[in-house]
Design a protein that fits this description.
With 279 residues, the protein is mostly helical. The chain has 11 helices and no strands.
Length: 279
Amino acid sequence: MSAVDPLRAIALDRGHVAAIARREVKTVTRNRGTLVLFVGFSLLLLGFTWAGGGHASGYVPTVVDLLTPVELLVPVLAFAIGYRVFVSDRERGELAVHATLPPSRSSIVLGTFLGRGVILALGVAAAALPALVFVVLSGDGTSPIYAAQRGADSPLLFARFVAVATLLGLAALAGALAVSAVARSAKSAVGLALGLWAVLAVGADVGALAALQRGFLDVGGLPTAVALGPGGAYRGLVFATVLDAATVEATAAVAPAVGVLSLVGWTVVALAVAAYALW
């Protein structure tokens, strides 16, 4: 094998990833169910924004209102987009065809993730836009709760919140692809997706508290242990990058880098599982 062959293989794999990503973007955008999902998610965000009451006070109070709903709903949205991808391909025999073609299983998983991840990121941002507009139209953007730093409460903080929610969604999407690669039927994919969603939602928190009660973990290490789970990482990042920017005293117990590394780690591990289980 010549010295050029590995470089050529890498270039070909990049082309396969890009082609698969484009195909996934077209596939998802042609599905009317995807539009229904994002519209429903947008309406829910708008409803929680109105019901929470923080919209009249500013962007940060609105983030507080949306913190938990987004943590629960964004993974559901990501699972809905990704849990049937490889199951459907296997049922149609496309995976068997892929096995005889040049694209590696890693490039198929990565291209699928990138294509559907782009749609997820754009969809989350678009779904959050009506809630942002509602906040702008509802009040003067200031709150007595954050009066110590009136200039800190800004749309930029809401944009940071959406970015953190997108990171959580991408981690959940990678998990959905792993579920889709492991499952052998749509029913098993649904069951695995529900189980993984439960882990994403409360599993790490419950595990950290159990470790604390049994003496395996001290109080000082609890925030970091919680942040190792996707939900805890998401909450920690929101506190560090959004809420702390508008308050006098810091509220985040862990550094933002811990949250980012946790979400990225979950994403990478899930994609590796998907690539391993695909065939």
